[in-house]
Sequence to fold (687 residues):
Amino acid sequence: MKLGLLVPRYGEEVVGGTEHWLRLLLEHLCADRGWAAEVFTTTAVSAETWADDYPATTTTVKGVTVHRFASRSGRNPEYLHQLPRLRADPAGFSPGEAMEYVRLVGPVCPDAVAAAEGSNCDLVAVTPYLYWPTVVGVPALGRRVLFHGAAHDEPELQLPVMERVFGAVGGFAFNTYSERALVEKTFRVGHLPSAIVGNAVDEGAGDPMAARAALGLGRDEPFVLCLGKVERAKGSVGLASLWRMYRARRPDAPRLVFIGPVHDQGIASAADAGVILAGRQPDAVKWGALTACSLLIAPSGQESFSLVVLEAWLSGRPVLVNGRCQPTVEHCRRSGGGLWFEDYGDFEVAVDRLLADPELGAALAARGHAYTRSEFAWPALLDRYEALAGRVLAGRVLAGTGR
Amino acid sequence: MSASEAAGPQDPVGAGRPSADLDELIGDIRREAARRRAAPDFPLDDEARLSSVMDGEGPVGQGADLAALAAALRQMSGPADPSGRVAGLAAAAVAAVAARLSHLEQRRPIAGRPGPAPAGDLPDLTGWLDEWGIGSRGRVLIAGEGAGAWADRVGDAAYAIDPTGEQYADAGVTRTGPVLEHLRSVADRALSFVILVGGLAEADVQHLDRWATELARTTAAVRVAAEAPWAWRRRIGEVAADRAARRPLHPDTWLETLARAGFSVTGRYGADGRHYGVEADGRS
Fold:
């Protein structure tokens, strides 16, 4: 099997997100299953700007051939002016207005799309759903696309151009059952081959004491952890506010530590002395903190998978997730190993229980650990992916779709 | 896999604790939260404000109407409720209902009494597939047969849906979930065949119009393979059969339903006399 990948950014410097996950997948497919792979992408590292950080050339990254093309335009801040209308009435955008919005979000890179289209790859994986290369490239590639949409329940999914994108693909690799339910509720694509593939999780290592020192915590100080980008859309501001109220009612409560790049300064007004904004930290600090924390809180209402929940379970720590987020609640339900909150009241009770009863937390985490190991270890995941790719390929052949 | 299955026999969450099941634990937390909300020192207004913040950062679809109602209630206060406490409680109640509905949406509908003719009771009728000419003419949906034998026999073109399977328990080409709900997610004329195997417990008489509409919209042809009604009546008794909440339909019911949907239909019985098939082609 030769698999292409059309993606807005690719490389070892691209950290987090579905692009990072697809890089690992390609490397494992090539190394463990003997697949060939080729990547068609831009020269960008940053999704905030899509600026040209890499040279426009063909290179090899960990055994995978990567073709990088310069974009005609990156992320144009003009798109921000359309956000209020997008949030209020996304379906009210005309197709032309929707394409203009996608163009402003970028990265506009026709060369990457053309190279993927002209390649001899059996299938082309495309991710994520909302950027220009996907919206333009998927209809061109058609049933050759194995789509990693990473769809969220957000206004962009309702843009009129998206029906053409989701309806054109050959099959879907979903992160969760919740993502599949969302996509099939939004678009009539239930007949297309699909599988709940998820993301593989690799356990890292880190010294808890070194992490405590790096984060400014005492040797035995209990703390609660939140991992990932610190921004309003990830629920960070809401969590900081919840924690401030919790500490107002529980003066002895531990401190809350945010590890991750701070993209929203609004967090500063929501936080108080009980909150540590540690910023971006090395992987060793992250894994050390996971081992040392009392529990992990995942406050985001918009995740398509959430690796951090599974990473906490691998570290033997319980999790508390936002009940508005279907995929993270799904992890908790499938594993039986996590709790979720809707309002402050149940947040307070859940935190009280987990902090007061380490045995309960350990038991929940053990369930989550078993779930993560059985469902998201590389061999199981690659098996699912190979089977799905075979079905998508067979569907292409049956449909007589040459391309 | 259910929470209790995931836990396993050594699970310390379940060992001697009142919260053996995750739903029980969550329910326990909700009840305790409700008790705390009723206390005079609970910051209801602050909770309502923070919930609005979290709602604003959340997804746009699920429970949006109820979330909006909860938000509106949180804004309410007046002469009869100067502190806004009643409005706050009402908002919290609506939010709890919204959350509960959201959870229910995620859960598989629980079947009532099981249908009397599960697919597993059918003898091997997959030979009918050859007679029906189902092969490489396009995408084929096998509905109601969880073991996958029919889909295996058809090959790469087929996928299956098992309406009786556990939630989150897809296996190979077989997915789990309600068949009618799945058909609603299928594009117009995207299927070459829909094969309804066994009694298809979901195919309740009351919903036949919906079945007819979705089948006519999505597929070029329908095939039904089921146990003949007198066979299962004999097995479970006339009274039980009459009272069965879900049952394999009489072949004449399928013939009439599919004909009304515009299909050209014929029916026939298997050589053993205990089973019947219905063939519905194209739209007249």
Summary: The radius of gyration of chain B is 25 Å. Confidence is low (pLDDT under 50) at residues 1-20, 61-79, 99-120 of chain B. Chain B touches chain A through 67 residues (CB under 8 Å).
